[in-house]
Amino acid sequence: MYYRLLLYTLLGLLAIREANAQDHRFDPPWNIPPASAVHFTVPGIDNVPDLYGDIVDPQLVVFFAGNQFMCIDDLLAAFKKEHPQYERIFVETLPPGILAKQIEGGSLTMGNLRITHKPDVYAAGKGRMDSMANHFSRVETYAYNKLAIMVPKGNPKAIKDIRDLGRHDVQVAMPNPAWEGVGKQIVSVYNKIGGPSLAARIMTEKVEKGSTYLTKIHHRESPMRILYRAADAAPVWYSEVVYQQLLQHPVDYVAIPDEDNIRATYRIGELKNAPRAQAAKDFVDFMKSESAKAIYRKYGFEV
Asked: How does 276-287 read in b/e, with b if 16+ C-beta sit within 10 Å?
């Protein structure tokens, strides 16, 4: 009896361990981490997917709106190949509104880490860049994007178009318009397709009832909620679907017709007070190059 009880206990512990392991099977970082003497990433505890590279004495600091995170590995490799003098580069891919506050305030704390680096370069959507025009000495356009609806593989709730996000039985992961520009653009699509009533149903009624979840960092949370089946639909940038499918994660998407969709314009600027002005110029020049354009095409952007 004792050994049988012990066996059941061990089997139970193994089942719990396996269940806990499965809880994080889709967690970021999804990119390849930099080489290091020690790798200590613990999913769900010590995991910082939106800070990249060398935070100590960087030769270039770039703030990218987070929805371009999938391009960073390839961009940095290509840039370093063309400019081998830049060995230490630090990049943040947080929501553009958060990065804007960091630029204005001069610091950001994540967990117990305080970052006071001033960026040399900032890249975000046209609206955000226009609102911060006084910060830049030079601004260039380099890519475009459109919206799509990410759904779990097989589309179990049979989502057909944007109106279905208003259904009471559909759990939606939605970017918070308070600090993510894409949220405002998605709401404009709700208004365009279904009028104010659709927007109110998804953004007010369903938020209050808990069937619309407002993300803090949509380019991480929305895919994860789809992958872990906590959401049935998530309006995202098309490039985010392309990336998850490149990773062979179990997602599908529902296209939004061009006449109902929006076209986002991505711009990049050199900061007027860039601590590393030459590096800023070199990186913005690179972002206009054919090699950078090819990287953006790979991940579903238009150039």
From this structure: beebbbbbbebb
